[in-house]
Amino acid sequence: MLLGLFGEVGGIMAAAKKLKREGAAFVGYRRAVEEEFGDALWYFAALCRRLEVPLHEVLAAASSEGYMCLVAAADDPPGAISRVSSPQPSGTFDEVLLSLGGNAAHLLVLTKQAPDARARLIAFADAFLRALNAAGISFAEVASANVRKVRGRFLTPVLPELPEFDGTFSEEERLPREFEIVIRQRSGGRSVLEMNGVVIGDPLTDNIADRDGYRFHDVFHFANAAVMHWSPTFRALIKRKRKSDPVVDETQDSGRAIVVEEGLSAFVFSHAKTLAFFEGQSSLSFDLLKTVRQFVDGYEVDACPMKLWEDAILQGYDVFRRVKRDEGGIVRGDRNRRKLEFRPLGAV
């Protein structure tokens, strides 16, 4: 936990260094720094909980001396007032960041029995708040964004609350609620897809000297369609693009969205190859899932939580391994249950 906190503080400093070096060219600065601050706050809150020191008491003690205080009326409970504290400028941006790093280092040797444990926590909280102020970032934005991120990563989604994306469109423009795809391997190692007895798409090979099974990668698009309710590639294959809405057709279902999904599939596949295609895994790394989210930033599927992405990827690779082993099979997608299933060719 302490190493995690120290690492996130290092991430804050690295992002700040990029801003100083690249200036306006570092477009993602604010978002990157907000995320690093949020992750550091998560570790710090966990540390306070482990040391049995209430976080709100630490923050209250940190935001007293050297802070400007405003008092305002509050709605709840009746007769309440609220105090808003903000740190006063205290040195250059570099000096503030170095102070944050130094206070993080002081926590590395912290133990529950340490007589100055509370004082060290307060000192770090003060440095953290001053760094937020120097970076021009809202504490509320950092905290709320991190809560959304953590919930999306670890909490099992409530299926009825997940987005549909095409629920308001006609049947002809929706991904099917249930679908079954037959995958066969023909001579020359080409895979062919059939849906309702009709060949869809083009025959595929691995397109690499190492026969790694990528010819069956359409399975990942089927997983996206079944679990995420999203797949511009599958929409194009079965001609279910939402053409009745020109904006949706252009921005969500056309060329660039298809390229994004294909690129995402190739990226995750390269990672999966080094991990036996996720065999035996029940979870994925946070870094991988964050990269997946970056891939789809700006597209409708960005509304889906990381936990759902993890489920879609793991289900997709479970089916992929079986298709690869059998050199074909029958893949069934069920959007209602958000499930992708496999059975061998010839099975009833």
Automatic annotation (TrEMBL):
What Pfam family does this protein match (any one)?
MazG_C
Residue ranges of the TM segments = none
InterPro entries on file: MazG-related_GP37, MazG_C
Q: Ranges for the MazG C-terminal domain?
A: 162-344
What protein name applies here?
Nucleoside triphosphate pyrophosphohydrolase family protein
